[in-house]
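Q: Here's a chain of 297 amino acids. Please give me its 3D structure as tokens.
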Amino acid sequence: MRICTTISSAALVALSLLLGAAPSWAQALDGAEDGNAPRYGQSLVEPTAPGEEAPASPSLGGVAPKQEYAPIILTTVPAPMVVELFTSEGCSSCPPADALMGELLERQYVLPLSFHVDYWDYIGWKDKFANPVFTNRQRAYAEAQGSSMVYTPQMIVAGAIDVVGSDRKAVDQALKAAYTRNTMYRIQVARDPKGRVIVQFPEALIGVPATVWLVTYQKSAESKVKAGENAGRDLMTYNVVRSLQKVGMWRGPATEIELKLDPVTKANSPDACAIIANQAEHGPIIAAAAFNFTKAW
């Protein structure tokens, strides 16, 4: 198997909060695979069947929505484990990882997101979903983990564990490891009386402040590639990210953050949205949620 790699120009800076992201995390956890719900730091609602919407989450650690707020139904469990795939239509090693993302969609406790990077566009095929913003996110993860290299297909599990995205065994081990170390906090999305979309975070001793990101994505996309390493192939990718924006900070107290989308993002007509809270800016993920785009905008 060939992995497409490139060298990051970012400084080699390791965040101390990521020291736990070593391979020694990969310890067994009973019941965390084959579709069974994992154990979390906080109890979760029971996952729904694939394709169904999960019920709205209950009161969140003393941060229950105000009565006049209208909860927006989540499409995963209230605290899914986030898997970010950095991929490219110009990389011949990526289609198996793209296919694996489709399988991860069947696990309600996993939120898979495909970020298409732009650094392989020069070899003959321009990826229409690629965005330098996504490339910057991948490089920031590398910098936070003390690495000088990024590659495709790369998966970042729970904002902290780096694995080859087409290596099924490594991905399962990374998910198990994330379940053992990560405390995921429940968050809730609602609309207030003025029609604003709000994400609500509970009060929690999170230690390091978290950066909150709003992601929009489409659930699947097909491309007929006519040039480059995948010339002649029909490629299918899943939960394809269309936009990424920083919307606020969560420092531990109960917090409400308004979610806004610019006209260009709305014009792309994404299917869904996700909230991701990374400690620091690109550290471990401690909260996440996903919901249908049309339920909010």
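Q: Can you summarize the key feature?
A: Residues 7-62 have pLDDT under 50 and may be disordered.
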